[in-house]
Amino acid sequence: MTWIPVLPEFGLGCDVFAGFVTQQGESLSPIIAQVDKLDKTADDIVGMLSGEGNFLESFPNREKSLVYAGAITTMWYGLAVGLLLAGVIVLALMK
């Protein structure tokens, strides 16, 4: 690990490979790796809003799976609400 001293009296130095000023002997590389992983996950979640594209943890050739799942879910909810309204109307007409 190569360090360039920035403020030696406080133990601060610049990590040459990461390019950050930190305490000498401590590198931010593991934290940067975790932030990169979280960034990919956040981009994947935002990508789910469009319903298209490949996702990080999905099988290949599943680009439009969220579009189809949303359409089927909407169809079933529409059917349930329609039957409920039809039942209310029939009960109202029977009285």
Short descriptors:
alpha+beta; three-stranded antiparallel sheet; 3 strands; 53% helix; 95 residues; 14% strand
What's the arrangement of secondary structure elements?
Elements: E1 3-7, E2 12-15, E3 20-23, H1 29-48, H2 65-94
Antiparallel strand pairs: 1-2, 2-3
Describe this structure in words.
- The protein has two helices and three strands.
- The protein has a three-stranded antiparallel beta sheet, with no helix packed on it.
- The chain has helices at residues 29-48, 65-94; strands at residues 3-7, 12-15, 20-23.
- The mean pLDDT is 85.
- The longest helix is centred in the last third of the chain and has 30 residues, at 65-94.
- The chain is an alpha+beta fold and 95 residues long.
- The radius of gyration is 28 Å and the shape is elongated.
- Helix content is 53%, strand content 14%.
Strand order of the largest sheet: 1-2-3
Number of helices: 2
Which sequence of SSEs, written as H and E, runs from N to C? Answer: EEEHH
Distance between the termini: 85 Å
Sheet-strand content, in percent, reads 5-15%
Number of strands: 3
Given helix and strand content, the structural type is alpha+beta
